[in-house]
Amino acid sequence: MELKSNVPEGPVEKKWEKHRFDLKLVNPANKRKYTILVVGTGLAGASAAASFGELGYNVKAFCFQDSPRRAHSIAAQGGINAAKNYCNDGDSVHRLFYDTVKGGDYRAREANVHRLAEISVSIIDQCVAQGVPFAREYGGLLANRSFGGTQVSRTFYARGQTGQQLLLGAYQAMERQIGTGMVKVFPRTEMLDLVLVNGAARGIVTRNLVTGKIETHTGDAVVLATGGYANVFYLSTNAKGCNVMAIWRAYRRGALMANPCYTQIHPTCIPVSGEYQSKLTLMSESLRNDGRIWVPMKKDDARPASQIPESERDYYLERRYPSFGNLVPRDVASRAAKAACDEGRGVGPGKLGVYLDFADAIRRLGEKTIADKYGNLFEMYERITDENPYKVPMRIFPASHYAMGGLWVDYNLMSNIPGLYVLGEANFSDHGANRLGASALMQGLADGYFIVPYTIGDYLAKSKLEKVGADHPEAKKVEAEANERLKKLLAIKGKRTPDSFHKDLGKLMWDNCGMARNAKGLETNLQRIPELREEFWKNVTVLGAGEEFNQSLEKAGRVADFLEFGELLCLDAHHRRESCGGHFREESQTPEGEALRDDQNFCYVAAWGFKGDGQKPELNREPLTFESVHLTQRSYK
Amino acid sequence: MRITLHIWRQKGPHDAGRLVTYEVPDASPEMSFLEMLDVLNERLTAKGEEPVAFDHDCREGICGTCGVVINGIPHGPRAATTTCQLHMRSFRDGDHLTCEPWRARAFPVIRDLAVDRSAFDRIVEAGGFIGVNTGSAPDGNSIPIPKKTADLSMDAAACIGCGACVAACPNASAMLFVAAKISHLGLLPQGQPERFDRAAKMVARMDGEGFGNCTNTRECEAACPKEIGVEFIARMNRDFLRAGVADRPEKATAGGA
């Protein structure tokens, strides 16, 4: 299949401007004739739903949470990037563009990233106008801080709760549209499948999680803003409900899944404490601005941190990467932590941890300044570990955090299925093989507020869409299939819980497809995952009924999809015999152990197409061309 | 550690509920409270008993989904802590814990410990926003805001909408929740044009949803996992009063603060 990225002609900095002019418009009076279905109400979904409503489209928005305000964007801590250059430190749209392409290890689509950098400035303005209480300087202007992978301060933040505040802004904007009647929200409603009519996305099948009622909603376009799949690792920083179902069902209906092996392992999370562990907690990367990361020089050093003298500590990031130090990008920091632990120099129980030490910063700036900057993070750490980070260094370890891969989209954020748009973390487009800190919020809001409201109009204006109702035969067919699947899950009545399968899958993924991958381990997974999936469909137990509030059934459906998706992730990882960003293939590294990219053979987007159960997916390639940024081996030394 | 749980089990909104006793003989102090419930649920499922339904999502204290009344206290004994962030080290070996859902007429029980808090969304829908459309904003730095003002606004904006304030209040009042939103937006220059109208509309909707009134018991403040203070309620009352006296909008006569 030929993948048409639909990137406009012209110099990179003029493409979006030109494209916006070329996009067809829908007359205001005609907008109300269209209905757009938005799945997911995080930053991308809520901002899109609000903006569609303001423009005059009818919108139905869906989320599995009990309120749209609880989507997982809410947990983002550190901040949002924008090329405002308020700090006068040499920032520009071009520099944000360059940093993001480089940070993504040259595996993102250049034109999309440039557009993201251009839009970044408008996002901040929009959010301020909505009342997002960003941090301020004493003079009353907006404050900035720096983040990993960059040498300028361009990150805007609201304490350690930036995602929460941005999401509340978008949620409130959407609630306002509910009040005007343009948007209708369906909380506690999960998308089970996608309905295509004449090849175009025209509806979704949903389950009301309270009553268990299965329904079909139809419209003129479907927007998926359903987040990432980091929970394929079982333990991750994602919320427990985060899942791959919406994009996986779309994949099975023909949408291409791009670069699923690009997953981000975040360097600063609280280490695992026991078998019962249900999730991992992130400590914002902004902590690396003032915290110094170290491990003991000696192996198996059992002394407490306070008794290890300065001369016997290895500040390994500062040593290995003197120009970026503790602020190297996430993939580099995570791998370095793994390397230190692999050498037997890890700290804490299980020796899977490194120190993040604030002693120097507290001496330099005082405890109060540190508390102002990071107080809520320190409290969160203490609540979980019962250790006081003002007195003893934090212990951190990498954890699965974000998915750079996702459904393939063109420049208009439309997948290869006409009328199916994919926004935010659910698509693949902007972060390449590694996302820089404070860029996820930027992308979610760029897609929702400033890109899809334009591009969807072009599609609607150009398409002749017949009226499709929930009684359309295609809709009925998909609905029946979704029903069947739930019945099947309930009928197995085996011996093992959905969670136990999810844990087994997570362990396979983490061990063989985590921070480092090799062909052998991936082959193990490609054999073990189908076996596990087979066992699941024979031996899972789901109690209760379908027509009621049934959390086990919800969980089982999500695990079933992870058991299919995990295999594709490993297949993608196996085929990509290069190291890039979050994807570190052990067979491809420099003599110093740094990631070695292979532009000769792998400078493309791998977009997989579903060919049927038990069939090998089809690999489609979108070559990546770089006109403005030169391909170089990344160096943060 | 050995924990005895007395958990509220209720099949559906219209069924009668009752407390059922379960034992977790091997809880670890490092576990979170919800992880202890996970362990219980895995065991119940293995025995063929339906697991306890409870709401949860982020498990890091920010999404506001979780909430269990533990021994009479919403979110349990530890101050400034959501249920998901509460660890078993806050309890002692041999403790008996009574676990109940949020109890308020405006929050009907869905099942076991899960309740319907959509009333909060409807209050926000009534006016908990600044009415600006996408694309019409001036430069972010065009309005300087004193750091103190921005900080105070952020203190109010930190509300996670969990509803513990309602569960803690003997009147099941939602005033702390509503006051936090009114204050967050009303403190900022951007929020001034709709300030009094907003207060009037949100209060009217709050009353319409069946929440009770404030009688200054301050249980809400004590239960709030984000330590939002009752002084915001005073601020809401001032804005509401002014809305009624000087800036009377349509239909803002219901209820009172």
What does it look like?
The complex is a heterodimer of chains A (637) and B (257). Helices cover 37% and strands 15% of the residues of chain A. In chain A, the strands form 5 sheets. In chain A, strands 6-2-1-10-18 form a 5-stranded parallel β-sheet. Chain A is of the alpha+beta class. In chain A, helix 5 packs across helix 12 and helix 10 runs antiparallel to helix 11. The two termini of chain A are 41 Å apart. Chain A folds into 3 domains: 311 residues, FAD/NAD(P)-binding domain (3-Layer(bba) Sandwich); 136 residues, Alpha-Beta Complex (Flavocytochrome C3, Chain A, domain 1); 136 residues, Fumarate reductase/succinate dehydrogenase flavoprotein-like, C-terminal domain (Methane Monooxygenase Hydroxylase, Chain G, domain 1, Up-down Bundle), CATH 1.20.58. Chain A has 17 helices and 20 strands. In chain A, strand 7 and strand 8 form a beta hairpin. Chain A is globular. In chain B, the strands form 2 sheets. In chain B, strands 2-1-5-3-4 form a 5-stranded mixed β-sheet. A two-stranded antiparallel ribbon of chain B has the order 6-7. Chain B is elongated, with a radius of gyration of 20 Å. In chain B, a hairpin with an 8-residue loop joins strand 1 and strand 2. The relative contact order of chain B is 0.13. In chain B, helix 3 runs antiparallel to helix 5 and helix 5 runs antiparallel to helix 6. By secondary structure, chain B is α+β, with helices and mostly antiparallel strands. Chain B folds into 2 domains: 109 residues, Beta-grasp domain (Ubiquitin-like (UB roll)); 128 residues, Fumarate Reductase Iron-sulfur Protein, Chain B, domain 2 (Orthogonal Bundle), CATH 1.10.1060. Chains A and B meet through helix 3, helix 5, helix 6, helix 11 and helix 12 of A and helix 1, helix 2 and helix 3 of B.
